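agent> step 3/5: call structure_predict on target 'S8 family serine peptidase' (Rossellomorea vietnamensis).
agent> reason: downstream docking stage needs a structural representation; sequence fetched in step 2, passing through unchanged.
tool.input:
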Amino acid sequence: MRKISALIFFFFLSNLLIPLEPQPAAAKAFKMPPLKQQPDQEEILIIETPQPVDSTRIREELKPYPSVKLRHVFTKVLYGYSIKGKQSEITEFLAAHPKSTKLTTTKAQTYTIKRDSTIPFVGAEKTRGYFDQNGNRLTGKGVKVGIIDTGMDLHHRDLERNFKGGRDVVDGDKEPMETLPGNGYSTIHGTHVAGIIAANGTLQGMAPNADLYIYRALGPGGRGTTDQVLAAIEAAVKDKVDIINLSLGSEVNGPDLPLSKALDKVADKGILPVVASGNSGPGDWTIGTPATSAKSLAVGASTPPTDVPYLRIGKEKIRLLSIDKTEQWKEIRYTDVYDGGLGSPVELKGSFGKIALIQRGKYTFEEKIENAEKAGAKGVLLYNNTKGLFAAMVSTDKDIPAAVISLEEGKKLLNTRSRVSITLNNEQDRLAPFSSKGPVTVNWMIKPDVTAPGVDINSTIPDGYMSLQGTSMAAPHVSGAAAILKQAHPGWKGPQLKAALMLSAKEISDGNGIPYKVYEQGAGRIQVDKALQLETFVYPASISMGGLQDQKKKYLERKITIQNQGKEPKTYSLHPAELKDDLRWELPMSFELKPGEEKSVTVRAIIKKFPDKHVLWEGKLLLDEGTNEYTLPYLIAAGTPDYPRIMGFAAVPGDEPDTLRYEAYLPGGAEEFALALFDQETLQLLAILDQKQQAAGMIGNQVDLPSSIKGKTFYAVAFAKAKGDEDYQENLIEWYR
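tool.output (status=ok):
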């Protein structure tokens, strides 16, 4: 079976220049230059208000500002509305409404991943042997699951019986159909997600009898805006769904953005929001909103039992991340790697019978692989042109295997004269290399909360089936698991569902048997059959202690609530899983809870020795009850934060000719923010475009591009400097106008 990778990534800007994927710029040495001022631009904003607003009154108030139009009004998850117009007129309008809070929106875009049948692996098949209060087997029957995505194939034979309602926010109707060929860039993502949750035909989903409510918030090409997603969330709340699946996200790691705040309010209503953590791994701090919502259930991706391709050079091995719609890798003994340059036909002439190593850049992924296939190569390895991994996708099936590796791994292969081999390792319960990691900036929260299978996941697509991979595929496993639990326990609300899945999760480890960090895997991989039988609940089920930035305070403490939902008294005690030299815990004495009783206790972490540099202390507290042991992940930060000063930088053509539009997120603000252009080859400074002192949060502007760079390929580099530390992100841009 061929494989495709897919994730809807809720990203900043659409209408991409080529190829515009943000990467950390650690591989080059850019220096922050002095910069200049910003011109006007058109933008979309969300306005929060203290009370619900009347749309008629808002339209009347907008009349003096001709370019500014009302888009959506929010009454359920936020009080407020969204508008679109020229920045100058929006600024004037906001000045007349000083009680409003401006929140800049982001746009969505399609990224990539793969899949296989994982229902038995997470325990869902075992739950079919249990029955609900009415004598029905546990299949999600009667549970309302909302899916906010690209829509769904409403006529798919495995899904049409489960479709019970929803809304198309993009087209403004009640038929949330996927974007079909001929109507723009077609989509398949929402249908794939829906099949994992509730397919009921040729394929069986996690909860095959769940009621599906579909909300199309992302249109052609998987693009949408924050206010469209907020409008979809509002519609789902009005429809009284039990669970909302959001397999969308961004590269903005912050707890204070509109979607994260909205999902916290959704959870307060008893609904469980399940959110994909993102595909920006393997680095720390890569989780993005809305998975940064404190009360949502954020999901990372782990591997089901699967054959993983590795390239071996002597005793070293490189894990290969296969590319969508390319052939499966097979084992190969002792073959040559050929330097295919950038992947032109001329550069690939000598690759016959070899694995072509091709650098990212200049040509599309499709062209590179097709050129290698025509040259007779037996496989393709695409290596990055900046630090780290990247997502690659092609639109048509290829007859040779292809995979992505990092810049560092590509350079290693270029410098080796040894022959290489391809081996397949059968693995399970490993963290997927693309799975985004925490912690959350600003508040040091543990995210993701759990993991679920997200590699090689087979599911429905319009008119058929396909294998995809990504945290987009992991999240619906959890939504389906929650539907099974909700059918078995109708009284359980979002907090109980979240706690049950976390407390019953299985810790996962790397190939050396070392457990992944708590901000990489959360509580572990879900086991829905274990969650079904849970009688002890802890709120919250992970303990984010926060951070200490100086030595004025020597301890951090949090309250947790332990609840006995069993039929017999239970005795509980807490202790750390392991002792740390610089950390000491003060924990309550053991105590007994009668059936239905709960108790709030304080856990205190005392810092014995303050670190010289920033430290993340992570581990687990163990809650013992008889022969049962429950794991509570904890995280403590000490010292000056080391998270990036800038995140999620993206740039696209502006609304006017010869302009560039950009956005970025500054978690802690910046004493100086700057945007500059550098030549791709020489890294010479070409132009200084913008400069400002900036508070924490979103930043964006539209700037003029100098005529001197026409026809050039250049780096747009955004800098942020605070407290002596400077970070930057870059976009490689090809001028095509």
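agent> step 4/5: record observation. The longest strand covers residues 615-625.
agent> proceeding.
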